[in-house]
Design brief:
The chain has 13 helices and 15 strands. It is of the alpha/beta class. A hairpin with a 4-residue loop joins strand 2 and strand 3. The two termini are 35 Å apart. It binds 4'-deoxy-4'-aminopyridoxal-5'-phosphate.
Amino acid sequence: MNTKKSEKIYESACRVMPGGVNSPVRAFQSVGGNPRIIKKGEGAYLYDVDGNRYLDLCCSWGPLILGHSDPDVISAVKNQIDRGLTYGASTETEYRLADFIVSKVEPVESIRFVSSGTEAVMSAIRLARGFTGRDLILKFEGCYHGHSDHLLVKAGSGLATFGQPSSAGVPEAITSQTAVLPLNDDEALSGFFKKNGDKLAAAIIEGVPANNGLLIQSHEFMRMLRALTQKYGALLIMDEVITGFRLGIGGASAYYAVPPDLVTYGKIIGGGMPVGAFGGRADIMKKLSPLGPVYQAGTLSGNPVAMTAGLATLEKLADGKIYADLEEKNRLFVSKLNEKLDGWAVNLSGIASIFWIVFQKELPRAADKIDPDGIAHFNRMHKVVLDDGIYLPPSGYEVCFISSAHTEEMLDDAAEILAKNIRNEAHRWE
Ligand code: PMP
């Protein structure tokens, strides 16, 4: 595959941007090889500046549930652009998007739009602290909630740890108010609440943890988390930046039948534009300025172009047909590929239109159960698969997404290419 133009542009980009990118994983450091410089996205395909075409299984990390350049979304956006890009004042479109979400997602009685998932989570945490008058927050190992200071905390396995920032530049004074527990561990959870429950402002969890592999939680664990937060007067924040409108209209809270107090959104609700949102119980949302004492604001929040893209996307998803179709396509793809690789040291897990390629026999439910050797297999495979025209996210810890533009035939071809390359990379189970 000729990638000369990509290489040249990337080299120049490295001179003017750290690592040549505006978000670290795009630099392909874990998988090696050169990041492709993209010129166009159409349907299920990405096209780079050298004219190569890739079947896109990353879908911009989740937002593009309708694929690239969906004609209805593009036409709505063009129509809005003709009337201006931003007003710094309210529009009917932001009200309509808010109303769409509030009327369809039960736990969301009131919502505020921001410009990214990070901002949504950061604001929801402040609101939870303001509402409860408590400082402590609880997160789970392997869950990513954006890059705000108090959530950039990892933990060792086993016991709760406090305050180990996982990035330079994050003060321990801030992360000392963040507790971290292993996922799907009932005992650790109940022990933590017994000791700290009455100091806790909120527990935050990804709807389905999908930033460190796909760690599908048991229904029991999710119900226990809901029950304990309620018992101790702490809020439950469901971070649905990935799962919101991906698992279905009701997201993960409907999938688990676990209603959170606050929900955070991003990705799909912006239809490919930079949008985030947080919402939930009206009595909590009333604490937000201008009504209440918790301050939160944004120059471009509720931007009309972004709201238009989001609304056009959600309206197409409203009747649920796309979800049913996506789920069936994903299920077929995962089972066909698993069949082709029967006996080989690889496994595929999937939920809704998300799948994860994992080089280990037992599908993990917690971060410390992920085999780093398996991740290394993925990382080696990535480059060869890319040269065969399949665009996977550039890290073995990342999940893949399909869109309504991916046809069964495209996915069959992808399964063939993946199977061939995985067989080259993996060994047979003994
Ligand atoms: N929460 C979750 C669950 C996410 O997956 C992400 C991004 N991948 C974020 C928050 C942060 O969103 P953003 O990148 O838009 O800031």
